[in-house]
Design goal:
Layout: H1 2-7, H2 9-41, H3 65-76, E1 79-84, E2 87-92, H4 95-104, H5 116-122, H6 135-145, H7 150-155, H8 157-174, H9 184-201, H10 211-226, H11 246-274, H12 283-290, H13 298-326, H14 331-344, H15 360-372, E3 382-383, E4 388-390, E5 393-395, E6 400-403, H16 405-408, H17 433-436, H18 460-477, E7 478-482, E8 493-494, E9 500-501, E10 506-510, H19 513-520
Parallel strand pairs: 2-6
Antiparallel strand pairs: 1-2, 3-6, 4-5, 7-10, 8-9
Helix pairs in contact: 5-11, 8-9, 8-18, 9-13, 10-11, 10-13, 11-13, 13-18
Bound molecules: protoporphyrin IX containing FE (HEM).
């Protein structure tokens, strides 16, 4: 037989290719028609259909999924559905529907899908963001909120102020006073990392050489790469979970690394507490104190601490980087910001937290950066725990719900010329992002970058303070220039769950002599 095959390959080949062709045709037919039949059959007992949407199932969505979601919103309307593998997604692209679903019906739409890579392999159903909507989530969120309310932020205001001073000094010295181009990624990550380390572990990195900075960066980038809401086929095609893949291996390795890094830091806090040291109030200290009462196991503690760093570092550092990427191509914005700063602050004082209300154009810039470059275009999908009918459309239990931030942020009824970076649209907006999210008129909400409903980002107040001090002081201190030979891309980005710009460099040229002296004021501070 084998001799026959070798001797007459031309006979075997047509037979094989006919089988392959038949198989392919069958697969294509199934792929085309089964979803169609299936979609038609997904109705509730009263015959209400699921929201309309694209016919085909998607194994997963390719690069720039937000653009596909936006295209479908235009085609199928403000609430549509699509199957990714065997998972039904409902995509919400209208502010009123977003409020109806995520806020008014939060009791039904506030859980999380048990993603195979993100939730099972890496976070193991913990870390607040991966928890199902249950008492454990409530308890963990309550513990975390102690460090994230506006009042809590006030209690460590000096620390954030101090870290932003170090940030400016780092930009100044890294850029050799404006003569050497700077990649803002490392410097801004260290700033947000130090803030989050102080809040979560009562510590900070003293130097750029601290290996914790690079490890945090590596962990966060690996996390962002592995965990996009529609990034892994195994999340949607169950049999693929039985085959060991490199992503599964990477996910488990990442989990172990997170336990190793944050576990070691937690143990350091414990050692200090055991030694009777006066450990500053921080998440880790609280976790050790309430461990038994709240039934926290070791993985709960490590993952809770890790998510503070993961949730808080890259998102805020990313906005600082997007701001620096945008500014050189918007000289009018820079000019008006400088005019406002010069007339309100002058050159003798740089902006502090309490100056925010006196600098409305600067506040508007920060909101506009968040609108045009929200780090999470799909927020973190919510998951439904009951069947629900919305205006005649059936949303079955176990549906993943996407807040389509990209389309919401480019809604022409809400934002004139939405593709233009124009801080003026926020000039009369005096509310914080947290207060804006509570507005009863959703068309007045500033943006949706922090999500919606019961799972809305609990770190908004922290993020706002961190961003204000970084961006207002950057504007006061420097003129930002693009390098003619290194154009900055505003379209490309890194990460599938959290977006940061692809690395770029800018020249940060001090605006006046006073920058030099103000940065020397705290010489006792390690840089
Ligand atoms: C610009 C900065 C930030 C942005 C844009 C952002 C955005 C988001 C979004 C979109 C969600 C999902 C919301 C939803 O499910 O509807 C979220 C959740 C979360 N964020 Fe943030 N975030 C930022 C900063 C922070 C900071 C500084 C912290 C920590 C101090 C933090 C901690 C968390 C946590 C723990 C969750 C999970 C909440 C839950 O599932 O109940 N975030 N964030």
């Amino acid at each position: 037989m084998s001799i026959d095959i070798i001797a007459r390959p031309h006979v075997i080949l047509p037979v094989l290719s006919a089988k392959v062709t038949l198989g392919l045709l069958l697969f294509a037919a199934l792929y085309t028609f089964v979803p169609y039949l299936f979609r038609k059959n997904v109705v509730d007992k009263d015959g209400n259909p699921i929201p309309p949407g694209p016919l085909f199932r998607f194994p997963y969505l390719p690069k720039f999924p937000e653009l596909s979601l936006d295209k479908w919103a235009k085609q199928f309307g403000p609430i549509y559905s699509l199957f990714v593998g065997n998972q039904l997604y409902v995509v919400v692209s209208d502010p009123h529907i977003a409020r109806d679903i995520f806020v008014n019906n939060g009791a039904i739409f506030s859980s999380r899908k048990d993603y195979f890579i993100k939730n099972q392999a890496i976070l193991r159903g913990r870390a607040i963001t991966a928890s199902q909507y249950n008492d454990k989530w409530r308890a963990h969120r309550r513990i975390a909120m102690q460090f994230m309310t506006p009042r809590a932020v006030q209690s460590y205001a000096d620390m954030v102020d101090y870290e932003s001073h170090i940030l400016m000094r780092s930009f100044y010295s890294e850029g050799c006073h404006g003569t050497v181009p700077v990649n803002p990624q490392y410097v801004s990550v260290r700033y947000t990392l130090n803030v989050m380390l102080a809040i979560s572990l009562g510590t900070r990195t003293d130097s750029f050489k601290d290996p914790l900075i690079q490890r945090t960066l590596d962990i966060a980038l690996e996390f962002n790469d592995l965990t996009g809401p529609v990034a892994n086929m195994a999340d949607f095609i169950t049999p693929l979970q039985w085959i060991p893949t490199s992503k599964q291996i990477r996910g488990r390795k990442l989990h172990d690394e997170m336990v190793e890094v944050y576990g070691a830091l937690l143990m350091k806090v414990k050692a200090r507490m055991d030694a009777g040291e006066d450990v500053p109030d921080c998440l880790a200290k609280t976790l050790w104190l309430v461990r038994d009462q709240e039934n926290l196991d070791w993985e709960d503690m490590c993952m809770l601490t890790a998510v503070f760093v993961l949730g808080g570092v890259h998102s805020t550092a990313g906005i600082v980087q997007w701001f620096l990427a945008l500014l050189p191509s918007h000289p009018d914005v820079a000019r008006r910001a400088h005019e406002e700063l010069d007339s309100v602050m002058g050159v003798d004082n740089w902006p502090a937290a309490e100056d925010e209300t006196r600098l409305p154009y600067l506040r508007a810039i920060i909101k506009e950066v968040q609108r045009v470059h929200a780090p999470f275009w799909m927020a973190t999908p919510h998951y439904s725990t009951e069947d629900f009918v919305y205006k005649g459309l059936f949303i079955p239990k176990d549906t993943a719900l996407v807040l389509n931030c990209y389309t919401l942020h480019h809604n022409e009824e809400r934002y004139t010329d939405p593709h233009i970076f124009n801080p003026d649209r926020y000039l009369n907006d005096t509310l914080s992002c947290a207060d804006s999210a509570k507005l009863s008129n959703v068309m007045e909400r500033d943006h949706w970058a922090f999500g919606a409903g019961r799972r809305i980002c609990p770190g908004i107040a922290v993020a706002e303070r961190v961003l204000w001090l970084a961006i207002s002081r950057l504007l006061w201190s420097f003129n930002v220039h693009e390098l003619p030979s290194e154009p900055i891309s505003l379209e490309e980005y890194e990460g599938t769950s959290g977006r940061t710009p692809v690395p770029f460099r800018v020249n940060l040229v001090p605006r006046h002599e006073r920058v030099h002296s103000i940065l020397q004021l705290r010489d006792e501070i390690p840089a």
